[in-house]
Specification:
single chain, 2 domains, seven-stranded mixed β-sheet, 7 strands, elongated, disordered C terminus
Length: 235
């Protein structure tokens, strides 16, 4: 992906100020913008082309008062660590699913999303609450069932998920190698639908050229720089 951006223009391929991380960051920004546009149109939700899976997020039991002002003796579960920032659309977080993990059976159950205020209203009702819900507050993920020890989170993240979270040592039986923990984020797969790739590459190339070389560009469909020959920066 970075090589494709560098190959679009010779300026990008030879300039040492434009590092691979700079290119990757700009690509990520453009990818988020385009994917949010698509998810707001109710597209891509049923695919795996935009989502990253955290296979095992360990949970700990905490009082419900930790995340709200509601005073009650009931407890809930909270992720042991803060989760990376999840992309947001017009309607909700870009989350495909949150699943409980049963280390013994290997089976899990999909949890329902809820707000903390709605859950507090449920607690006040004289009904039996068999469903498990989740919500996110202060970068922590909370689950209403305090007995859940770990969950699997499938979402689109705005930033790179740290290796310690992506390859966890958890109660789920997952095994990862030292190579996994030490993997360079630039070596990971670029997650984006194929039909958006050319748009992201063109937008990234145009932004880098205009930022670092002050060149006004008109990127055509085939990726050719369309600046006019009489431009002061034309060579």
């Amino acid at each position: 992906m970075v090589s494709d951006v560098r190959g679009t223009h010779k300026l990008l391929s030879t300039d040492s100020l434009i590092t691979d991380r700079v290119i990757a960051s700009e690509v990520n920004n453009n990818t988020l913008m385009l994917v949010k546009r698509e998810t707001n149109l109710r597209k891509l939700w049923g695919t795996d082309s935009i989502f990253t899976t955290i296979p095992c997020l360990e949970m700990i039991e905490v009082p419900i008062s930790e995340c709200c002002s509601y005073a009650d003796e009931c407890t809930i579960a909270r992720s042991k660590v803060k989760i990376p920032k999840i992309a947001e659309g017009n309607y909700q977080y870009v989350i495909q699913g949150v699943y409980s993990i049963n280390a013994l059976s290997g089976k899990g159950k999909k949890l329902k999303e809820i707000t903390i205020n709605r859950y507090i209203n449920l607690l006040k009702l004289p009904i039996i609450k068999n469903e498990s819900y989740y919500w996110i507050t202060n970068d922590y993920l909370y689950v209403t069932n305090p007995e859940i020890q770990a969950i699997r989170l499938v979402a689109m993240f705005e930033s790179i998920v740290p290796n310690t979270i992506l390859y966890p040592e958890c109660c789920c039986g997952n095994t990862f190698t030292t190579e996994d923990y030490c993997k360079n984020p630039l070596d990971r797969e670029w997650i984006i639908p194929g039909y958006l790739k050319s748009q992201v590459l063109d937008m990234t190339s145009k932004k880098l050229l205009s930022t670092y070389f002050n060149i006004k560009t008109d990127i055509t469909d085939d990726g050719i720089d369309g600046q006019a020959p009489n431009s002061p920066n034309f060579r």
